[in-house]
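Practice record 12: protein with dinuclear copper ion.
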Amino acid sequence: MSITRRELLQGAAIGGAGLVVGKVAFGGDATTTGDTALSGDVGKIAAERGLLDEDVIHAVKTFVAPGKPSMDSHLLFASGGHSGQILVMGVPSMKLMKVIAVFTPEPWQGHGYGADSSDLVMAAGTSAEGGAVSASRPKLGWGDTHHPALSETGGEYDGRWIYINDRANGRIAMVDLRDFKTKQIFDVPNLETSHGGCFVTQNSDYVHISTMQPTLTDRSKAESLITDYKNVMRGYSTFMAINQTTGRMEQERSFQIELPPYTQDLADSGKLVSDGYAFINSFNTEMAFGGNMEGRPPMEVGASKNDFDMMHIINWKLAEQVIKDGKFEMINGMRVIRLDVAVAEGVLHFVPEPKSPHGVDVSPDGNYLCVGGKLDPHVTIFGFDKILAAIESKDYEKLDEFGVPVLKFDSCVAGRVEVGLGPLHTQYDDKGYGYISLFLDSAVAKFSLGEPYFSGEEAFKLVDTLKVNYNVGHLVAMEGDTVKPDGKYLVALNKWSIDRFPVVGTLKPQNFQLIDLTGEKMELLSDTPIGIGEPHYVQSIRTERIKSWEVYPAGTNPLTMELDPNAVADGGQRVERTGTTVEAWMTVMRSQFMPDTLHVTKGDKVIVHLTNVEETPDATHGFAIPRYNINVSLDPGECATVEFIADAEGAFAMYCTEFCSALHLEMQGWMLVSV
Ligand code: CUA
């Protein structure tokens, strides 16, 4: 049987499933080896470029032909780290499609440069306690995006919204996947910082975020952190209620559960059998707080003394009832179930987890919780059925010093697998395997789960290890967080890239490595440098689940996704003065602003309503008055409003920032500010 080159390319491009290539030989002339026949040109080019046979196969497996976007079967939504944004990339091409502006101003998308739709979002996210608190440093101009969480229905991604936490400030943002724009930034009360979330519950009832470094409960007593840490510091597990129509978080329906001042870290939501529960790792149960100049050990030593830290098991469905029963206190506008109440009501349990754990990741069937212990070479696999039985029979080892019942480790563990050094995060495929990143080994380990996936000797076994380059943190398998993972590919998020790319200065890019999961052995397919921030975590979704709009219905305000009352129809233009306010209604289209001249008096309040009346996908215009720091992106159909005080006199150039037509440069105008 011979396979045509076309078939080979197609077969390989969808992931190589069922493809028998044998050993492909490339020579000067056309060669036939095993079941394949390849043109000699391929061999010649490969030889000239120094590519090995396997390199060519990897290229064919990942190449997306021009004009064939559907060959990217999945999209990655990667946190952008301290860029404060979200990166959208294709798989297997690994091409960057978009950087979604979230916490940090972004000029291309006009995010944070005068448009009401983004300015209001950003302002709302910097107003609460925990925002920028210093008058000398008033602006929160960045975020540290960490954990993206795609919305779910029945434990599967539904393509509606994505949430992401700001590790720096304990905030959380919502992006609407109808237009890939940030619609809400919420500064969560009582959170100083947040690392280990967010995640959504399996029907997106809530998005969860918790503290990392705990919060000082009384800001006026900073020094009591040193003298009375145990009593004045607290952690909070936050369940932000999601409006099922808008995707927005609603503070009045949300609640928090007070936690001991351990360092709450990675977390995950229960699913299927464990729906209604949430799991949070913690480290620093030693409650160390540094002080290396004052005779105390540095954090890294002080926080690594205990052999076990405590996984938090939170019954949030029960917490909902406790809230309904009124057993909460309002703290900074948030309903909080106090620690003693949480314990008394059975909302909170602990189970010991090996020393300084990092990820806790729930398996697709909801029954296994895989915990990587940074300082333990095993992945510890807890069984939710065992945890539940231990809770029901009050199979406690002890009460911890805050009175929280601690379940017996041995009663809750289903299996342990020695995987290598520095295990962190686990992802799952569709065949009952887990894939865990090994930071210290710079590797990914593949291991089997127990029943119903594998039983007897086959369960809880290390089956493969692949070296990655280098220092892998998180990793993602396709839809590997859901109840129905796709398998196929894995992406390792490597912190270091040392010798993998041309040297581009002293700050090196991170390295996303694409790995093929379809074979018996994991296989490295490609390296992709990430030159913006340090992406922390990624979720992947099947491309077809995203149903983004290409054009807004005419006159839509992205903030409301409804017709803006100030939108104008095609060609409409009007300027009105009321006292010292000048209000303009402007049509924006190829290739002019109507009106294109604004006459104002110094000190006037200027309000400009801009409507891009284009109906063609991609017919975006910009509206910039650079010297006033105004830069708006007006996507087709979009209406936005800019408001400012004309406090500097002069003739100020306005122009369209997007190359929209042959006469794009002519798309300009003037704002004349006279005394
Ligand atoms: Cu409109 Cu350029």
